[in-house]
Design the sequence.
């Protein structure tokens, strides 16, 4: 690994100042959260010297709050800490399922969902789950902060909507009603420590047995995770019976733009994403029905 400079500021303004100073002088910087992508990439992908800016000492990035209306997950909160939060797990089981799939127990002690999001891998597991949950990015900017829906945050493979000088403070979620539940399923060739061939995050809201709102997002089958509006449309107004789940699955297959690689052909990925959609919806439906 190449030598690098390291800074661990303790305030948002100090992070922003560091980003601004380095940008003006043309010196590269990189934000460090859990480091489970950064460290690997520094060894094998990009060995250029840089200043690493560790954001784990900020009060704001260490917020994990479940309030009466809103939920906040700071960008320094590792997956393991989320898993220990019983109320968060009960409210967003699908998001927690996705975070629980990231790496091993050791990796989850460091890896954050915000790091997963910023890294912007097409196969990032938490991204479809965050989109299904309707999560919004809380971005620190020189003039304060701005918000952006997660589905608009990832702009390409390894690319996100953060402008120079900005960083992600955390993600915000609405506290869901008891009749709103999510689920996340992925398929990998190996059972452990592999990345998704396809992944699907869903959220459904029921009134009695009728679906009144839905969000379906697919991962690893396009350059970025995609929110599939047509899948939601196939579900709203139904009782989430087999026919509507089938239609939603077909909408996901139609929206997918998969590649072929060593993990699976494009045709295989397209098939799998439809199956995962149906299965994830059945899980979310049963959760919302309290079953
Ligand atoms: C063994 C192993 C297994 C893995 N398995 C999986 C898996 O199954 N599924 C999966 O999706 N991923 C997997 N990963 C990848 C990685 O663990 C995840 O992407 C993780 O969530 C990254 O979070 P992090 O906090 O470690 O991010 P970091 O490595 O700290 O950062 C990742 C990227 O995001 C940027 N960044 C981080 N935080 C911010 C911020 N707040 N603002 C701006 N930019 C920021 C960094 O600069 C960097 O470019 C695996 C990694 C390893 C090493």
Sequence:
């Amino acid at each position: 690994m190449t030598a690098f400079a390291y800074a661990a500021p303790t305030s948002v303004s100090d992070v922003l100042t560091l980003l601004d100073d380095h940008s003006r002088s043309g010196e590269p910087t990189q934000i460090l959260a859990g480091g489970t992508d950064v460290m690997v990439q520094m060894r094998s992908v990009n060995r250029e010297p840089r200043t690493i800016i560790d954001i784990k000492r900020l009060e704001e990035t260490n917020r994990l709050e479940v309030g009466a209306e809103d939920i906040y997950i700071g960008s320094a909160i590792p997956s393991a800490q989320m898993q220990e939060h019983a109320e968060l797990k009960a409210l967003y089981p699908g998001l927690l399922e996705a975070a629980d799939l990231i790496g091993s127990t050791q990796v989850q002690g460091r890896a954050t969902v915000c790091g997963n999001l910023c890294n912007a891998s097409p196969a990032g597991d938490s991204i479809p789950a965050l989109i299904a949950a309707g999560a919004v990015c809380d971005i620190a900017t020189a003039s304060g902060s701005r918000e952006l829906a997660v589905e608009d945050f990832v702009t390409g493979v390894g690319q996100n909507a953060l402008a120079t000088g900005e960083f992600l403070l955390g993600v915000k979620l609405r506290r869901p009603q008891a009749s709103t539940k999510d689920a996340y399923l992925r398929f990998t060739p190996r059972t452990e420590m592999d990345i998704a061939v396809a992944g699907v995050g869903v959220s459904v809201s029921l009134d009695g047995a009728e679906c009144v709102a839905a969000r379906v997002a697919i991962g690893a089958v396009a350059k970025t995770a995609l929110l599939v509006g047509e899948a939601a449309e196939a579900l709203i107004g139904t009782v989430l019976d087999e026919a509507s789940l089938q239609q939603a699955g077909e909408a996901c297959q139609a929206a997918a733009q998969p590649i072929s690689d060593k993990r699976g052909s494009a045709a295989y990925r397209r098939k799998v994403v439809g199956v995962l959609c149906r299965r994830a919806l059945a899980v979310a439906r049963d959760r919302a029905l309290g079953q």
